[in-house]
Design goal:
By secondary structure, the protein is an alpha+beta fold. The protein contains 5 helices and 7 strands; from the N terminus they run βααααββββαββ.
Length: about 140
């Protein structure tokens, strides 16, 4: 199972880290690993890097884009894709600072959908130390 965090970077930071995404990954990893006492400092750092997500607007946009798909459901706050023929089970949850995708696939179907929504999405899997700009993917599911 993979857990991806998708951040909507500010334009200037995408330009700055486009050639060196590992530096951006390490910054985000340090923010994630901060002690609870440093939460305000971590939030300040994160808010300098990203645009906050318009949660309700993005939830609605995802629902409208996917609601006719047989493999899609929305359960409470989670968007779910269950594609039996591709053996994929993925969920996406919209938070204010990031999107959280949990999937049994390395390339969940949500990547293709999200790539059409923003050129500034940066994807991180902290556990597997995997990171990339979503716009850099050549072949989407």
């Amino acid at each position: 199972m993979r857990t991806y965090y998708v951040f909507n970077l500010k334009k200037e930071f995408k330009s700055l880290y486009q050639e060196n995404p590992s530096a951006l990954f390490h910054i985000l990893k340090q923010i994630k690993q901060m002690d609870k006492k440093e939460v305000n400092y971590g939030y300040t750092l994160l808010s300098q890097l990203i645009h906050p997500l318009k949660k309700d607007q993005l939830d609605r946009k995802l629902f409208l884009k996917l609601h006719r798909d047989m493999s899609y459901t929305k359960v409470e706050e989670k968007h779910c894709i269950n594609q039996l023929y591709k053996d994929e089970v993925s969920t996406l949850e919209v938070k204010r600072a990031f999107l959280k995708i949990e999937s049994n696939k390395d390339m969940p179907a949500f990547f293709a959908i999200l790539s059409s929504m923003s050129d500034y999405f940066f994807v991180v899997d902290f556990h597997h130390q995997d990171y990339f700009f979503l716009s850099d993917l050549k072949v989407l599911v």
